[in-house]
Specification:
heterodimer; A: 405 residues; alpha+beta; Dna Ligase, domain 1; Rossmann fold; 3 domains; four-stranded antiparallel sheet; 14 helices; 25% strand; elongated; B: 357 residues; alpha/beta; 14 strands; globular
Chain lengths: 405, 357
């Protein structure tokens, strides 16, 4: 795993205390009972309603409703739910002028925190990109952050008021504590000495989630993509339940090239090759398994992919590429046993779909694994080809392409 | 930092953190097939004190197991030619604490007077080790940066002064996280790199030295490139996987400098991916005349453009957040700098097939 987005609610909840602010946003979903009553008790302040699922450019997509009235709440949620959104955020509105909006971002790099700042923040920041100044805060300022602000940030923030400069050290300390890798506050306004963030985006290092959650009263969970297909959701659940990595993105359910790949690098090379051969529009999915999955893992993973293949409603020929590099330590036989078991359960249906299977894999127990696979595919009348480590990685893609044409 | 000629000349010895049977056995198999008189794994730090059973050729051997780094004393009595390594096989969550524990323990408690002085002078943590490999995936970014901070001799490790005389242990060669290791044919197999079965080691001719260096962001693709080099009738000068994490302790830049200063290496085969901007550092090396050898490079990730939103691929770094991080942008830049860069993997195979003997 890697850098993942947090919801705006969780981001603000974590960061507001650094600014000595009390966060009053209310997070809810379209299944929360009586959500129309959430605004009660806030009658005197104006409220803003937002979709809160890590979506970019919400303002431009109409996924933010300013100054929302109590009776508009339910219809707006209903409308957004129809678009596939399920997580929302209700916040008190901050009165301000557009011209006061500023932009601030901090990104962790190898050399230190990269600070970006602009006086012209807001929804149009991308067209005002030239106004953004960038400074690298030295990596060691991470450790010395309490001792004072480095020269760079003083230069960037010169004339912006001492208050913002003073805020940076405790902010960075907080980001490190929480393993946050990216913070964007766009826009924020300054009210005298006080920073008031209007919108906030945060990315967190998912590999540290279990460490962070030990220190928090409530567990953080990264936002899920809002438009996942059922097969993608199921595979994510599967992935979460095993120490191995199981990834799957559905690109084009009507595509005729299906991928069951292994290894982070080899899977990328194989998917690239499909696109490079001009077959990008036929690529149904991208995915990979790695980290020495068990036979049960590859069985469950394969089964879900096959269910998706069997859902296709055309009868044109299709290809399934089962391929990977020359493994260092993943056992080819063990992983193939699970794949074969899943294929075996639906082999007759797959034959009816005019599916051919193209295999390439190397590594520990390669010979035994490939032998099993070849025997099975020949018996089931699904064989396209079976290659070991002596064949180039990408030959199977070419063969699959030839079969489809 | 230790150099490749020193590794080839020296007696490489390895302390393993974690008892990963298949990987450790493959190192011993490599040693045996290389014609060494004894295996290079000298001690294993694990949950139980005692011995672990392994094979060196047909002979059963016992490797001492320890529960803490304080017992690692073997190296302190050894001769000048000993090149001490560690191989960290623990989980991603434990990689930081176990690595620093090992280095701190050995700096303060057990190392010889001489080493302690060197470490104090360099003000870095290396204990007695020339270097090590961090195998685990899912090491938190901050933990990687902490390891880099604690073991590098300058504030910014990517800009190490190269003209200064290297103090042997003050600037250890740390590779990873998420690395399958470092391989120097006939001399050192530090990790599962090249495979874990005797068949793989024999078929890939990993014990025969040659002139091709394989440098890769991906463990699987390291092996794939080794396979391609051998298939084209060549052998390796060395191979290493710097890992697909956002902050590899040994950056691609450092790896290229290793290849440049190695008299055996003639050509580099490089595998990189979309995400991050490490490749632009390679470009600078070329422009500054600090890297002059032949390179055949493949940057994977063009498929990213088929997605609506930039997806996260298998490795932690493999996501293009801006245009400069895309595979296409990196390919173009490297090509302009004079590297041989493939347009597709088939093209990469064509380019390597034309390698001169």
């Amino acid at each position: 795993m890697a850098r993942v987005k947090l919801s705006e609610h969780d981001a603000k909840h974590l960061i507001y205390p650094v600014f000595n602010l009390d966060y009053q946003g209310i997070s809810f979903t379209n299944t929360t009972p009586n959500f129309s009553k959430l605004a009660e008790g806030h009658e005197r302040s104006r409220m803003v309603l937002k979709v809160d699922q890590g979506v970019k450019k919400r303002g431009k997509q109409g996924l933010i409703k300013l100054n929302i009235k109590k009776d508009e709440l339910a219809p707006t949620i209903h409308k957004w739910s129809k678009l596939g959104y399920s997580n929302f955020l209700l916040e008190p509105m901050v009165k301000h002028e557009g011209a006061q909006e500023q932009y601030l971002a901090l990104e962790r790099t190898r050399e230190g925190w990269l600070l970006s700042h602009s006086d012209q923040g807001g929804v149009e920041i991308e067209s005002n990109w030239d106004s953004v100044t960038r400074t690298l805060l030295n990596r060691n300022s991470r450790l010395q952050v309490e001792k004072g602000s480095p020269a760079g940030e003083r230069r960037v923030l010169a004339g912006k008021g001492e208050s913002l400069s003073k805020l940076l050290p405790p902010l960075i300390k907080k980001l490190d504590e929480l393993h946050i890798t990216f913070l964007e506050i766009n826009p924020f306004v300054m009210d005298k000495e006080q920073i008031i963030p209007l919108d906030m985006a945060v990315e967190i290092d998912s590999t540290a989630l279990s460490l962070i959650n030990q220190t928090l009263p409530f567990p953080l969970s990264p936002v899920q993509d809002f438009d996942l297909s059922p097969v993608e959701s199921r595979i994510r659940e599967l992935d979460a339940a095993t120490p191995a990595a199981l990834k799957f993105n559905l690109l084009n359910p009507a595509g005729r090239i299906w991928m069951l790949l292994s290894g982070g690098g080899a899977s990328l090379v194989l998917a690239d090759e499909v696109a490079d051969l001009g077959l990008g529009s036929e690529l149904a999915n991208y995915g990979e398994y790695s980290g020495a999955p068990s036979t049960d893992d590859t069985y469950a993973y394969t089964k879900l992919i096959l269910t998706q293949i069997l859902k296709t409603d055309h009868n044109q020929s299709q290809a399934l590429i089962i391929a990977g590099g020359v493994a260092n330590f993943t056992d080819v036989k063990k992983t193939f046993l699970g794949i074969i078991q899943a294929l075996d359960e639906v082999k007759a249906k797959l034959v009816k779909k005019n599916l051919r299977i193209f295999v390439r894999r190397g590594g520990p127990n390669e010979e035994a694994g490939l032998h099993l696979m070849r025997d099975f595919l020949e018996g089931a009348d699904l064989i396209g080809s079976v290659h070991g480590h002596t064949s180039p990685l990408t030959t199977v893609v070419k063969e699959a392409g030839e079969y489809l044409s | 930092m230790i150099t490749l000629p020193e590794i080839r000349k020296g007696k490489n010895q390895i302390v393993c953190l974690g008892n990963h049977h298949d990987i450790i056995q493959s190192i011993l198999d490599f040693d045996y097939l290389s014609g060494k008189k004894e295996g290079s794994v000298t001690q294993i730090i694990t949950a139980r004190k005692g011995y672990a059973k392994y094979f060196f050729g047909r002979q059963e051997i016992l490797i001492p197991t320890l529960t803490s780094p304080h017992g690692v004393t073997e190296f302190t009595e050894s001769t000048e030619s000993t090149v001490p390594w560690f191989l960290n096989l623990t989980s991603g969550r434990r990689t930081l604490s176990s690595t620093l524990g090992l280095l701190e323990g050995l700096t303060l408690q057990d190392s010889s007077q001489k080493t302690r002085k060197a470490a104090q002078k360099g003000q870095t943590l290396s204990g007695i080790f020339s270097g090590g490999v961090l195998f685990a995936e899912n090491v938190p970014e901050l933990h990687s940066l902490e390891i880099i901070n604690q073991t590098s001799s300058t504030d910014t490790p990517t800009r190490r002064p190269t003209d200064q005389p290297t103090r042997r242990h003050a600037d250890p060669l740390i590779i990873g996280p998420a690395s399958v290791g470092l391989l120097v044919p006939g001399s050192l197999k530090l990790g599962p790199i090249g495979g874990i079965t005797p068949t793989q080691i024999k078929e890939s001719e990993l014990t025969t030295p040659g002139s091709i260096a394989v440098l890769s962001a991906s463990g699987g693709m390291t092996n794939e490139l080794i396979n391609i080099a051998i298939g084209s009738g060549h052998h390796l000068s060395f191979a290493l996987a710097f890992g697909g994490d956002r902050f590899p302790a040994l950056s691609p830049r450092d790896a290229f400098l290793m290849a440049e200063s190695d008299p055996e290496t003639k050509t580099v085969l490089y595998y990189g991916e979309l995400g991050g901007e490490d490749e632009y550092e390679l470009l600078k090396l070329r422009e500054e005349g600090k890297f002059t050898k032949d390179v055949i490079a493949h940057i994977a990730g063009t498929v990213s453009s088929l997605f609506k939103e930039a997806p996260q691929f298998g490795h932690a770094k493999a996501k293009a957040n801006k245009k400069s991080e895309t595979a296409l942008a990196k390919r173009k830049a490297l090509k302009e700098a004079g590297f041989q860069v493939s347009n597709s993997f088939s093209h990469f195979l064509d380019l390597t097939a034309k390698l001169q003997h």
